[in-house]
């Protein structure tokens, strides 16, 4: 699947210290897939952030089409209780 990064997603990745490798890993093999508004989907994955030295949730919001996934925005959070829903996949 081709992954297309919007200008906003690239900006947020730089601002939040999120690497392309981590983002691509979550897009290619998300742990959770959550439907969202406007035909968007939220892909989530857990990872260890070496800068913060702790486990984080990466949330990738985008639009999935037949052969592409367009990343609209991306962010990381340590709020597992708020964002991690085991029954979402």
What would your notes on this structure say?
This protein has 89 residues and is α+β, with helices and mostly antiparallel strands. The protein has a single domain (2-84), classed as Roll (Nuclear Transport Factor 2, Chain: A), CATH 3.10.450. It has helices at 7-16, 20-28, 80-83, and strands at residues 2-5, 32-35, 41-49, 54-64, 68-77. Strands 1-5-4-3-2 form a five-stranded mixed sheet. The protein is globular.
Please describe the topology of this protein:
Elements: E1 2-5, H1 7-16, H2 20-28, E2 32-35, E3 41-49, E4 54-64, E5 68-77, H3 80-83
Parallel strand pairs: 1-5
Antiparallel strand pairs: 2-3, 3-4, 4-5
Largest sheet, strands/sense/barrel: 5 strands, mixed
CATH names the topology as Nuclear Transport Factor 2, Chain: A
What is the general shape? globular
What is the level-2 CATH architecture name?
A: Roll
Q: Spans of 5+ residues with little confidence (pLDDT < 50)?
A: none
